[in-house]
Amino acid sequence: MNIVGVSISTGASFTLFTSISNRKFTPSIRNHANLSLWLSSRLFFLPTAKSASLCQMPPLSISTTAIDDEDVKKNPIIEKSRDSYVRRRKSKPSSDQDEIFSNLLRLAVRNQDVGFGSQIHAAILKIHDDDGGEGSMVLFNKVIAMYIKLRRVSYARKVFDQMKFPDVVTYTSLISAYAKCGKEREVVDLFLTMRLADIDFNEFTIVAVLTSCIRNFNLKLGMQVHVLAIKIYNTLDIYISNALMGLYGRLQRSHDVVRLFDKMPNRDVSSWNAVIFGTLKEFRYEQAFTFFHDMRMAGFSGDKFTLSTLLMASEEGLYMEEGEMIHCHSIKIGLELDLSVGNALMSHYTKFSHHVNDIVNIFERMPSKDVISCTSMVWGFMEFGKVKSALEVFNQMKEINSVSYNALMAGFCQNGEYLQALELFRKVIEEGMELSDFTLGTAIHACALASDVERSKQIHGFVTKVGFGSNARIKSSLVDMYSKCNRMKEARMIFDTGGVFNGESCLIGSTSLICGYARNGYFEEALYFFTKLLKHERFGVSIDEILVSTVLGVCGDLGFVDIGKQLHVYVLKLKNHPFDVTLWNSLFSMYSKSGSSDDAAKVYDSMPKHDVTTWNTLIAGHVLHRQGDEAVITWKKMIETSNVTPDHISFLLVLLASKYTSYDPVDICHGLFTSMSSYGIKPHEEHYAAIVSVFGHWNNFNEAEDLIKNMPSEAGALVWRSLLDTCRLNSNFMLGKQAMNHILESTPTDPSTYILISNLYSALGRWHRSEKTRQEMRDKGLRKVPSQSWIFHQNKIHSFHARDQTHLESKDIYSALNILILECMKVGYAPDRSYVLHEVEEFQKENFLFYHSAKLAVTYGHLITTMKGSRAVRVMKNVRLCGDCHSFMKFFSVVTARKIFFRDTSGFHWFIDGRCSCEVQ
Ligand SMILES: [Zn+2]
Ligand SMILES: [Zn+2]
């Protein structure tokens, strides 16, 4: 007989038999008997596919094909040898026998074959009594280990329950298994039973119980175990210390981690990993790298866990260079393409790299990829605006989970592909994927961004149907969605339904609602709602810095400096709210945006510290005043003298500011752009859009075109829109048309795109196309934000639309304006009819022009504000002031001898003695 020569189709089984051959397994009658025993236990008649391969063994000298008990009985030699074997086994355990059992148990694990494992278990039971002897105990412990490895903890438990004398290994295996599946109660019960049975635990038992504490965040039990361990062992074992550090690290008690770490006489890689991980939990990223340095000095190079943890630290703490250093180190020690390190590297480069190829390079070289790697690649492509490539990767994914769907959906939203995001959402539902509040939140966000009223209603209905209607996070997303769709009634209705809508979600909801009111021009509602919150502090939300900051933001955006001042006082009165830098920044920004430079300066001087937002607000102030040179000086001061690191907003602002410099800003823009990388900032589309707008402003369209051509990913709608806008202002129709075609390529869903396109057609004199574009916009239910001007007087907002006659003092305003127009015409004002929509009949044009919202507002402001102390008339407008109104204001300042402070979306205008500050610059 030739056992070694048996042809077995699975590699795993072959290993088993070769291992027997390596041990010089000499065929003998006893071995025949052993084999026959397996056969008689029907080991080779297993139900599963993997073990079925064993049935393909060629006939042996002892038939292997159809041996059953009958055959065995018929074979006197086998029968005899079995009987003698069983007798012998009972008296004296055979180590060879046990060795084979152990090997077969291992085989079951390797093949992940529970059925096969159970058969071996049955065979062991047939010949092994649990006699409490060492041999049987070892074997039954192995059976338990087998079941645990095959994730059949309940089977393992049954074996355990039937064992008469379980030992420390038995207990520890089971405790460890329960710990890993989070069954804390079973862990504690078993540990106590073990102690009552007077079985001494070992360090592995302690580690197993600690694992359970880590999984269940049970600090109390963990600390008890810690004390027990110290009592038993004077010096803690390295494994116990590591587990304890893991526990304290998970529970963000990094001082305990470090204390344990410092006391360790010996450390291994896991000890270093635990202490590094502990720092991460408390956001002390720099320390993580210090520990890594010490670790290397101690002679450890780290493992995949060390590297992926550090890469996470570099990503979260914005330590780009350190991350790159870890990348080099991973190449050096051959772990660059390890699954977890590769995944972490992809995530790192998605955040910091300027080229999508850095991510693709790692992804393509990774020998094995999992769902995380592929999802990271999808996200990487989306971050670089490569929607098509992201889709390709997604479509080729063998395994897709809800995280992958969420990444794709969020990516679509990020790239303005709202409709694709919603289409994908439909697919998620059809395929019955798990719906999380993140998935639903993203779909709602897509509707909000698309401002698609119809779909918004549908998704609201769906969310309610699937039972997420009362989920607080979803509700605040719905409030945001409806407020972005200008459906404030619905938004308010959802908010008012109360229920579980409280705490943080209520805060988000309130913020969305207040911003929604403000954005859609319902200023009074915005402030009324806030005052109501202030008075009652109801809805379960206490007014905190964030909400006050938000409302200060609204005041700043709308130029309500008076309300802002009241809030300033309110904030100063708050005792329980620490006056933190965010609040200081909001105040500073509110004064600065409202054009109250003196108050802004006072706040700036009294601030305890200036952070990046403070500096950004300073630069933003210069942008509003169109002070390009001053903005660049402030920028230089920030990077040269302050300890503040600029962020992507700082770059965006200084780029925008360079539009107003007294010198050609091409060089400075290029310089700023290249320096972004040294701060670990990847230029976003908005940065490109800003530079395009600067180049366009300076009539340098060649540079703008070059920049667009050399973008790392295709220019998106934002960049083209920026180009189209400057083309319109500088009458570059040819390039404008190109930009328009690019915008039209991607489905236009934003009303502002239609307005821009319509305006360009108007400028080209193609009225028909212009009107058609506007009609198309109306057909799609898209609404343009109506142009509106407002002034704030005695705690009341007076807001005007064009030809608005709803104001109580409308009659007086119109007659005053008519007189003022005549006065202005006397000193040279000539109405510019090109600013009137073409569809208006010629004789009506002036009427339309004269009663623009800005003119109505400034007239009312003149009527109600006193001339004493020559207080300026302050008017705000939600869109750019039209050319005719701009010209009118100059004459207005002459005939009324008043200063007019005007803020529109392009910044501040001070009209004094017939001149505007925007033209002086
Ligand atoms: Zn106007
Ligand atoms: Zn101006």
TrEMBL record:
Transmembrane residue ranges: none
Molecular functions per Gene Ontology: RNA binding; zinc ion binding
Domain of life: Eukaryota
Pfam family, one: PPR_2
Protein's UniProt keywords contain Repeat: yes
GO terms, biological process: RNA modification
PPR repeats: 167-201, 268-302, 370-400, 401-435, 580-614, 750-784
DYW domain residues: 828-919
The protein, known as: DYW domain-containing protein
Taxonomic lineage from the root: Eukaryota, Viridiplantae, Streptophyta, Embryophyta, Tracheophyta
